[in-house]
Design a protein that fits this description.
Low-confidence stretches of chain B: 1-15
Number of strands of chain B: 0
Distance between the termini of chain A: 10 Å
Order of helices and strands of chain A: HH
Mean pLDDT of chain B: 93
Helix content of chain B: 55-70%
Largest interface: A-B, 42 and 57 residues
Largest sheet of chain A: none
Radius of gyration of chain B: 23 Å
Number of helices of chain B: 17
Number of strands of chain A: 0
Radius of gyration of chain A: 17 Å
Oligomer: heterodimer
Strand content of chain A: under 5%
Largest sheet of chain B: none
Helix content of chain A: over 70%
Mean pLDDT of chain A: 80
Number of helices of chain A: 2
């Protein structure tokens, strides 16, 4: 999405919603990583749990950057 | 959080270029330029504080024996120097550049979340105060190194708690800043500016922001576990309770190695803006630069254990991390090749921004090569925790990031202040910095190869000569930075030639379409990019 000079009030509302959506998704991902890295120590096999967390972090990065590269 | 409406479709009106005045302007501002200025001033102040700590270290190491500070204080100095330089100086400087330049480079009126932007900045001073005042609490400041390894951090005094809180606060600030940058770049670009038309500085910051979102929570989790080990009886890393101190190292470096790229990628972006302008040629291989940046970011997540070769790990793991580390040289080499190819047969001139950019290229490549040496596990086992490592990462962090930031500051100062910097002062700053930097850090390679360990206040007589040279160089380098302060103050006070809208003839990006200094409100009507 890019800024548009001929934006209507609806467009502005959509842009605001898009901004908030992007922010909340990113904030949620950050919160999950924070809680996940601590919680993984409490699971039955901590090394596996931490590996899964690490893979999730890496996957996030690949998907996030990869999506943008396609634009 | 609230997003800016971005709805002033009327043309930019200088009559409405009003701004609050006095202290309230700086406390409550939501303007990206004000906040960028505050970030840059804060980072330079912290650079001076961290620099004074470095000079304390070098004063102690000027000759063998203990003469200036107690060993415990020396350890606090090495710890706080690292933390302040990484979290207080370099990262905020990069965010300061992002705040100033990203909206202007993509044709946006401001950052997407202007009030959160203000909050992101104002979290930093309390964190810095926590770090610095930890020197005065019982037990002294944290002294386990900037890596905060247990068991030392579990056993240390309340200075460590203040450090952990400071890291939490700075991490929150970074995450908020990253969310803001990603949202701004994805949603507020000018019409016609597709992602693959964005200036490279925006690309490198977009990827850096994703890295921050990914790793800052991991660091926050690690130091939270340290905190609960210290005060709430848990045993995440406490071997006495069944915990694993090496696990902290894994988690820390899962954050710590991407952190190196968080620090260097914005610097790459600045260099990618400056070299084409002063070569009068477009950037060579734009798309490959973008893919190389993405490649570096992703590879940075699978190399962390090269910081831990001596902790012991299976041979397969050792080989994996060794080869993966070497692999990073490929996308980094692509970047260096592209910068050189951009300069090749260009009509180059060497004003101060270009001097710092070329200095960056030369010295960062040296730092990269010593990184490759350290990636080789049998060599790393010999050089682990020696001054060779100190030399390596200062070539990357100082000659890499810091030189790039100086380059960017001289490049954009005319746009920020409306006044041209004094070229003679700029050149003096570059040459004194370049020479004294090498006097300081090049001998550390020899010291490391000869076996001098890092983080010690005393050393054997055989290391005395090169330590003396390094200390003399360090004081020279510190004093050189006051020249930069002089250059900036001259610009900020309007003492110099008036800057035109486009002071660099090769400049093609959107910020050069604005008058100098850039008006308080810019691009209220988004420009159309063809």
């Amino acid at each position: 999405m890019t800024a548009d000079p001929s934006r209507t009030p609806d467009d502005r509302a959509r842009l605001r919603a898009a901004n908030l959506r992007t922010a909340w998704v990113l904030a949620t991902i950050a919160a999950v990583f924070f809680a996940g890295i601590i919680a993984s120590k409490f699971l039955g096999t901590p090394s596996t749990a931490i590996s899964v967390m690490g893979a999730a972090v890496l996957l996030f990065l690949v998907v996030a950057i990869g999506r943008n590269l396609r634009r | 959080m609230s997003s800016i409406p971005h709805d002033h479709v009327a043309g930019h009106d200088h009559a409405h270029d009003h701004r609050p005045s006095g202290i309230a302007r700086w406390l409550t501002t939501t303007n990206h330029k004000d906040i960028g200025t505050m970030y840059l001033i804060f980072s330079f102040a912290m650079f001076l504080v961290g620099g004074c700590m470095a000079l304390t270290i070098r004063a102690e190491l000027f000759q063998p024996g203990l003469q200036v500070v107690h060993p415990e204080f020396f350890n606090s100095m090495t710890t706080l120097h690292g933390l302040i330089m990484v979290f207080g100086a370099i990262m905020p400087a990069a965010v300061g550049f992002a705040n100033w330049m990203i909206p202007m480079l993509i044709g946006a009126p401001d950052m997407a979340f202007a009030r959160m932007n203000n909050w992101s900045f104002w979290l930093l001073p309390p964190a810095a105060i926590l770090l610095v005042t930890s020197l005065f609490v019982p037990g002294g400041a944290a002294a386990a190194g900037w890596t905060l390894y247990p068991p030392l951090t579990i056993q240390a005094g309340m200075g460590t708690d203040l450090t952990i809180f400071a890291v939490h606060i700075m991490g929150a600030s970074s995450i908020m800043g990253s969310i803001n940058i990603i949202t701004t770049i994805l949603n507020l670009r000018a019409p016609g500016m597709t992602l693959m038309k964005m200036p490279m500085f925006c690309w490198t910051w977009l990827i850096t922001a994703y890295l921050l979102i990914a790793v800052m929570p991991v660091l926050a989790g690690a130091v939270t576990m340290l905190l609960t080990d210290r005060h709430f009886g848990t045993s995440f890393f406490n071997a006495a309770g069944g915990g694993d101190p090496v696990l902290f190292q894994h988690i820390f470096w899962f954050f710590g190695h991407p952190e190196v790229y968080i620090i260097i990628l914005p610097a790459f972006g600045i260099i990618s803006e400056i070299i084409p302008v002063f070569s009068r040629k477009p950037l060579f291989g734009y798309a490959s630069m973008v893919y190389a940046t993405a490649g570096i970011a992703i590879l940075s997540f699978i190399v962390w254990a090269h910081h831990m070769f001596t902790t012991g790990m299976p041979l397969a793991g050792t080989l994996f991390f060794m080869y993966a580390t070497m692999l990073i040289a490929v996308p980094t080499g692509v970047k260096v090749f592209n910068w050189l190819a951009t300069m090749w047969k260009g009509a180059m001139t060497f004003e101060t921004p270009m001097l710092f950019a070329v200095g960056f290229l030369f010295l960062f490549t040296m730092g990269g090569f010593t990184g490759l040496v350290l990636a080789i596990m049998p060599i790393d086992v010999q050089l682990q925790d020696t001054y060779y490592v100190v030399a390596h990462f200062h070539y990357v962090m100082v000659a890499g990031s810091l030189f790039a930031f100086f380059s960017g500051a001289y490049y954009w100062l005319p746009k920020w202040t409306g006044t041209m910097y004094d070229e003679k002062i700029g050149q003096l700053h570059f040459w004194t910095s370049f020479v004294t930097f090498n006097i300081t850090f090049f001998p550390m390679h020899f010291l490391g190869l000869a076996g001098m360990p890092r983080r010690i206040p005393d050393y054997a007589q055989q290391f005395a000569d090169w330590n003396l040279v390094a200390s003399v160089g360090a004081f020279g380098f510190g004093l050189s930075q006051l020249i930069f302060l002089w250059a900036v103050i001259k610009c900020a006070t309007g003492s110099g030639a008036k800057a035109p809208a486009k002071p660099w003839e090769g400049g093609t990006s959107l910020e050069w379409t604005l008058p100098s200094p850039a008006p308080y409100h810019t691009f209220e009507t988004p420009p159309v990019v063809k």
